[in-house]
Amino acid sequence: MSESADTEPKVASEGPPDPHHANRWKILAVIGIAQLTIFLDTTVVNIALPSAQADLGFGDGDRQWVVTAYALAFGSLLLLGGRIVDLIGAKRSLMVSIIGFGLMSVLGGAANGFAMLVTARALQGAFAALVAPAALSFLLTAFKDPKERVKAFGVYGALGSGGLALGLVLGGALTDWLDWRWCLYVNVIFTAVVFFGSVVTMHNQRAEHRPEKLDLPGTVTASLGLFFLAFGLSNADDGDWGKVDVWGYLLVSVVLLVAFVLFELRSRNPLLPVRIVLNRNRGSAYLAMFLLGIGLFVQFLFLTYYLQLTLEFSAIESGLAFLPMIVGIGIGATTIPPVLEPKLGVRVLIPAGLVLAAVGSFWLSRLTTESSYAAGILVPSLIAGVGFGLVVSLGAAVATVGVQAEDAGAASALVNTVQQVGGSIGTALLSTLAITAADSFIEGKTPTPQLAAEAAVESYTTAFFWGAVVFLVGAVVCGALFDRDVTAQSDGEVGAAVPSV
Q1: Residue 443 burial (C-beta neighbours within 10 Å; 0-12, 13-18, 19+)
Q2: pTM for the full model?
Q3: How far is CA 397 from CA 20, 44, 167, 297, 445, in A?
Q4: What is the DSSP letter of 7?
């Protein structure tokens, strides 16, 4: 990737005034709640699963699909969602998708069986894939001042990553105090706020030179390719990569994604214009967020296991235990970038964020069965949170700055796509390493409850250690790839957009 490969025109300074600028902070509040809602739902049902299982009577083997169905639909349809935003406009996309998300949440909360619950979760994920790029694309036009834009992306990034942790807090509280169904019903409140907020604060705008039509071959190959990738990886979370439902789906995924790239190079209206990722700095930002996704999702997963199975925390206690990480994400995403980004630049701050994530993850890899929350988890989770916040806020800003107006939805969708794909790959790979570590730990030893507990902790700490390695590698690679003068700030407007009804 190189700057010379980036053939995009300079940011347009002419065109009709943007009606969103005056309402920019109100719009940020609305899309921030939208971002919080869809990422919160990635984890909010995790802690509620045992209660839902007991209520609906499905088996242990089915339990993972309540989470996986949402993730598969969300991750595989994001690129399609981004292009729909470019075609019909961000406000229209946001309003339609947030209504659909709320309705599917009610359907899931009212589920009378496993099939109904999983179907609702998959449809939630499908609507979320349209909510995410629609929300993010508003940041590209509403905020003109460079310093304000950095702050806006910080808030947006904090609410996304913080939503993953907050989902655990909210899920635990609702399950303990009310009923597991309220983990889904609660979305009605959030979606209603987003819907009415968008009515009051937003205008529907579409790029003047928007795509003429949807890229059908690219849509099919990308959506199916991402679906089979995530599905194959989810089947490998038990450490067995030799199963046909692992390597078979991964092979199909590779073929489809290669076909997708070939289609995009030839298409007049590509689903993902190649010029978006050929820009050196944007490509590096996408890489940073992909690598962050590998370790971020795994840290939530295995830290939850440790809290509940080793420290024997209740659902609500486990959720509250993530509050230091949420605070750290807030600091890293909203407090540090406006102060240090103008002085140090993202070439320093994004790798620094990955290094902080590595420090926190490596610290967690020192946990034992005797560790306490205060001594072993509180500080490293805070440090890792600061790193997560830096990467998600500045990474999203660099990944979308300077894109053509007609590509805003696609570029925004790719931000979330790389995180979701990274999370799927990280969960599968690091789960395999964790299982292998546990098996090696107990090999040749007399089985006892204490040995089983120690083996479990060995598996968690192995995942944390390799997560730290991924973060460190990412820091080195991204630090080398970013240009010396790369910035998270835009020189002006994203491009001319025309109002539409």
Answers
A1: exposed
A2: 0.80
A3: 18, 27, 24, 21, 51
A4: -
Whole-angstrom distance, CA of residue 233 vs CA of residue 367: 27
Residue 181 main-chain phi, psi, to 5 deg: -65, -25
Residue 2 domain-assigned (yes or no): no
The pLDDT tens digits for 342-399 are 888 888 899 999 999 999 999 999 999 999 899 899 999 999 999 998 998 888 888 8
Burial of 266 (0-12, 13-18, 19+ CB in 10 A): exposed
Question: In three state form, how does the secondary structure of 367-410 look?
Answer: CCCCCCHHHHCHHHHHHHHHHHHHHHHHHHHHHHCCCCHHHHHH
Beta-carbon contacts of 307 under 8 Å, excluding residues fewer than 6 positions away, are 313, 317, 318, 321, 373, 377
Quick check: 302 and 434 in contact, CB under 8 A? yes
140 class by beta-carbon count within 10 Å (0-12 exposed, 13-18 middle, 19+ buried): buried
- In sign, the C-alpha dihedral spanning 83, 85, 89, 95 is positive
Q: How many domains does the chain have?
A: 2
For residue 500, being part of any structural domain is answered with no
Same domain for 349 and 308, yes or no, is: yes
Q: How far apart are CA 243 and CA 176, in angstroms?
A: 38
Q: What sign does the dihedral 15-18-21-27 (CA atoms) show?
A: negative
205, containing H or E segment:
strand 205-207
Place of tokens 């089979």: 228
Q: What's 466's domain CATH number?
A: 1.20.1250.20
Question: pLDDT, tens digit, for every residue of 297-307?
Answer: 778 778 888 88
